[in-house]
Amino acid sequence: SKYHLQWGHVRSLPNKIRSEAEINASNKERKYIVVSNLPFEGRPQKENPNQQYKRNQIKTTKYTLLSFLPKNIFEQLHRFANLYFVAIAVLNFFPVVNAFQPAVGLIPICIIMVVTALKDAWEDLRRYKSDKIINNQHCFIYNRKEQDYVQKHWKDVRVGDFVQLQCNEIIPADILLLFSSDPSGVCHLETANLDGETNLKQRRVVKGFLHQESRFEPELFQNKIVCEKPNNNLSKFKGYMEHPDQTRTGFNSESLLLRGCTIRNTEVVVGIVIYAGHETKAMLNNSGPRYKRSKIERRMNIDIFFCVGILFFMCLIGAIGHGLWKGKFSGLPPFDVPDANGNFPSIALQGFYMFLTMIILLQILIPISLYVSIELVKLGQVFFLHNDIDLYDEETDLSIQCRALNITEDLGQIQYIFSDKTGTLTENKMVFRRCTIMGNEFSHQENAKRLETQKELDSDDEDWTKCQYGAFPGLSTLRHTGSAKPLRRSQSARAHFQYHTRHRSMGRCNSTQSPVAFSSTIEKDVTPDQGLLTKVKDAALKLETLTPHKVTKPSFTTGSSITDFFLALAICNSVMVSTTTEPRQRIRSLGTSLEKIHQLFQRLKLSSLSQSFSSSAPSDLGESLGPNPTTVDSDEQDDLSTQSCGDSTDVGYQSLIPEPEFCYEAESPDEAALVHAARAYNFTLVSRTPEQVTVRLPQGTLLTFDLLYTLGFDSVRKRMSVIVRHPLTAEIIVYTKGADSVIMDLLEDPAKEKKLRKIRAKTQKHLDWYARDGLRTLCIAKKLPMTEYVKWANFRHEAEASLDNQDELLMETAQHLETQLTLLGATGIEDRLQEGVPDTITALREAGVQIWVLTGDKQETAVNIAHSCKLLEQRDMVYTINTESQRCYDMSKTEHKFFGIPLPCQAPSSTMEAAVPDIGLVIDGKTLNIIFQGNLEKKFLELTKYCRSVLCCRSTPLQKSMVVKLVRDKLKVMTLAIGDGANDVSMIQAADIGIGISGQEGMQAVMSSDFAITRFKHLKKLLLVHGHWCYSRLARMVVYYFYKNVSYVNLLFWYQFFCGFSGTTMIDYWQMIFFNLFFTSLPPLVFGILDKDISAETLLALPELYRSGQNSKFYKMSTFWIAMMDAFYQSLICFFIPYLTYKDSDIGVFTFGTPINTISLITILLHQAMEMKTWTFIHWSVLVASFLLYFVVSLVYNAICVTCNSPTNPYWIMEKQLSDPTFYLLCFVTPVAALLPRYFFLALQGTLGQSPILEAQKLDKLPKEKKDLAIQEWRRQKERLSTACRVAPFPGNARLGHLQVPHFTEQELRDSSIKESSSPMKRHVGDWVLNRDKSSPLPCPGYVGHNQRSPSSSARPSPDEHLLGPSGYKAFGMFTDSQTGSPGASSRGSHKRSQSSLTI
Fold first, then answer.
1. Which residues are marked as active site?
2. Which has the closest alpha carbon to 1293: 935, 1008, 986, 918?
3. For the whole model, what pTM was predicted?
4. Which residue ranges are tagged as binding site for Mg(2+)?
């Protein structure tokens, strides 16, 4: 269908109208049609149009009993190493090239694949049991034959079934809501299982099904449902219902009940299944653990190719040697055997056969067991990581979650961290701090003092006893009455749906956690500003004089604006209201006057104290306050809604009349903070339904607004609006709140009235103050009486019913409504820093990690938070780049500059790092767009190399991910992204390691992350301790594996020089198999899981030790080749000392090989012992057990193997060796000679080495007191070195500190600087440029300034004083000496902390 929107005049939607053929083709692809299953009961399934959709049974297993073996083998052969060894085993079956018995050659690869298959089977069995529990849960499905709802398993639910759900029941599939027992047609959901959000959400019955009888009749449902195809977007859903008369009713996500959520506060709901099983949104989002390739694995794959090259080189030597040896014979060698035709192969062909034989013989040069060992080690590391008590958060009862099991070692190599701000660095607990109304700023000093001294207490008991405006004598007696208990969140059966999280502690959930989201004491209690409180009371009294016949023209008086401001705070939200006695019971209506409430309280006190404030069933307040409820009809309620108490103007009336302790459940902490702020000024939100919202005024009057429409907040519009009908004037009013950068552009033209222009300028100035104090800002506005609401609503309904281009149509209607707004004021909300954030950032910085903050907040807010968390220091030079065009960059393109900043010709080297600690860069989203679109990425990265901190403000989720990818790919560094919200998902997925914080904004970030933590401070130990351990353990274990295999296989290679390169061995093949699989496999596993080169305390005290992982100290090209050379040397010693000992003797082949095998085992185990830095009982036991196991197996095998390896059998070989003193002498002398160079090198390194790792290992051996003193001295020396480097800057730093500002003409500045912009700073600078001293140099259009401010003061600029006034301009260092005094330094604008800033 085509839509034309007409707003007084005809206005069409551009690019929205397409041909009928295009629309039909598009709809056919996108349509998902659902009908009722009832007409098709008892008929063949193929007649049911819903049979094409999936059933509700879920299956997360990968295998079945029949498919397990072939499918698992196929998957394992995708690994190059497994495929290589299988090919070698198959090659060994050809007699012309085999080196061992064919069946024996299969044993190693079979054992490895069997172990892997058992691990896969065990994991799949766990998934099968989990699926079985979920599929066999029960629900009620309507049955036409029984004429009632019958109980069925979840797996039997199908698309088109009618499902009946009751309170506290989990939803089995995605269901379209058709009926609710709530008269308002509302259903309440708890989505904690799905997204982790703890607040309740409302879902509404589809329009047209709201006014029904007490029972829904599924058999009367004959509509056809058309919606979008299944997708994983949890927040979006659109479609329409086509009625038998061909009319359509649109619906969206507000009518969809998602699988896994829990019904709350609603007795019964009924709906029709839309998506089932794996097509539900929850299952489409359940991607499970993520698998990435770690940096060590990528390095290891390269080294394996080096090993393949070494193997081919050794095999080539064997083939050439075999040919040369054969060529020495004058005739045919007597041991040559002809083929079936009596022919002898040529020497070249025999050399080729020997090449293949040598590959089979030396195959273990490639460590076959390394891959399995790495997987087992990582599982062990994850186990200890998950059980670290320091990474456990007691408040949320959650520990760290490891969702990506194969990149633990990357935690020890991070070089760049990209962090979100809100909810990651801050608590995301919003506290109301300040507000400005109609240009008048109210500082709320008393509230600020309270926040400085109050400690946050989230105790339910204190919530009971505390009353905001006074104590009610009888309230405490009601505290423990009533049998109904608050509903516990732990009863939502989270474990049934989300298996990667722990069960919540029931006891903790009830005792210490607030049952309502965003309702801690510090968030709820707001101390009002006394001056504003007086004005509020006066303005509220005038509000009562309004009547439908006394509607005046729109005015901008302070009194009316104050009431509108607080009404907007109370109404413009989606907050749900409940009481403290039953936090999960919603207050549906409150149409009773305070006088009647007071009477009910008195009756309650006198008659019965056994009833609680609210009953267990939804009811109005009158019913819940006493056993004899007073029923108020709708007409009487309308009259009562405007009544007030007799002495309502008396300040002390609250101390006599109890105010129910309401609980506000908001979808965001900002909404909760604003509602609590409105309540502090006695504009109390007391009830909310889909049709009405009730607010109590200061004098006790209850105003019930008709809620006509709600335009929810989204990241594109960045605002929210509600359309209400005023109960006194019957006017239709739009209240809007949103980001100041958006609202300011939607205001009506200030040129019409001078007062509006002045209010707007003052408000913008106050917003700048708030942002500089680190407060989150929101603008509040209204739209004066809306006369075209009916027309607008019709177009809105048409847009909602459209399946094609619905999003564009809805956006168009919203944009038309939210224009020509009248500014009421703005709020400043504080988002407090999380505990331990400054310390964590300081430690990570000392560890050599570059920290960037990518946030969507205002620039000033982000900078202030950066100072608070020590991301920026007071002494830092802060460069700020704000521009909307490339002009400034292009003018200096020929020079080595970036937006006017001169760049040194060389990048900073590692020796310069300490000399560049004091430069910060702040950049906004618009400038980022120019960087990405103008191919300026290289220049941008070049500049950031000199900055210790980078803040990207006003950045979108896409820009966040682009910045992460840019740094990761161009600089070739290891990156980590951390965030807590859905807007951080793309950034988290783009980084090498993504960490989600399970905080106030749900679980989307966690579900997309590799690791999940609850606090930013946990990042310190996660990286500095566990990251270092995981990397050092695994890196050294991988190097050890390469050494072990090369050292052992070289023994066979040296023997070929003495056996004519015939491919024979001096060691029994069974011994060779057991050597790698059993005798030397367990010590590396224990080493990789338990070894600690440095203690956790030392790693935390000396963060710079983390740099070893960043530099890949333990595993890089040099360490690999050193290990290879060491392996070659040790193999030479282990072979030739026994060879020289037994030379010219008549011992057998295995008698010669057994001492060599034993010596090699001892050498390899002792080499492992030298690598171990931690010695525990487990380490000793594993080494001794491996050594004893070798002798036990050898003795038993040699005793029973009489003819198992004919013609050379190892019978009784070990027993004879143990009786020969020469064997013991060799086992002592040879390992000592082999390990002596390594031991000497380690001793020399420990004595003379200056490595921080070695120094820290020495500190760990000291007593605790001496260790602490040594660490303190270490840190003092480092601080002295850092100070010395800062005093003597290098040339690059000097160039950055002295910018040469290009000169422009006044006309150029007039064209670029005076443009109307949302940034007030740009406008102020433009005004200053036009009124400057003619002799002053002109800055770049983006303006350049160097501001040295005086120490911070609590003084606040007066409302009439511009932030960038004349005195402020004189402080710009480009034009005056920054160190000399200036009038600006002593002005009232000195409230800022001491800092240097340069803005471009």
1. 420
2. 918
3. 0.69
4. 420, 422, 980, 984
